[in-house]
Write a structure and sequence with these properties.
2 helices, Alpha-Beta Plaits, alpha+beta
């Protein structure tokens, strides 16, 4: 996608949160700081740990910087090579871990 001469792309990330960041607004801060568009595809959070699969849209430079920033905050960041399939591996509330 191209907007005003700037190429916007999508990347998908699996983010793993350490316990001390579970109550922090990391995704909100990411959006405000880097002006990226996000979409959460999957997530699992409990009181001790959490992970999510996040789509981010932005320029290549911004997405690279955003990924580095997430790592600096203390998250484990894995870039996914392909988009997650919607619903694959997801669970409804109340289903087992």
């Amino acid at each position: 996608m191209q907007l005003s001469g700037v190429y916007v792309m999508k990347r998908w990330f699996r983010l793993v949160y350490p316990p001390e960041l579970l109550n922090q607004p990391v995704i909100y801060q990411l959006i405000k700081h880097y002006d990226v568009v996000t979409n959460i595809f999957q997530a699992q959070v409990d009181k001790n740990s959490g992970w999510l699969v996040l789509e981010m849209q932005g320029t290549e430079v911004v997405l690279t910087e955003a990924g580095s920033w997430l790592r600096e905050q203390g998250l484990i960041v894995e870039e996914l090579k392909t988009p997650p399939s919607s619903g694959a591996g997801s669970r409804k509330a109340g289903e087992g871990s």
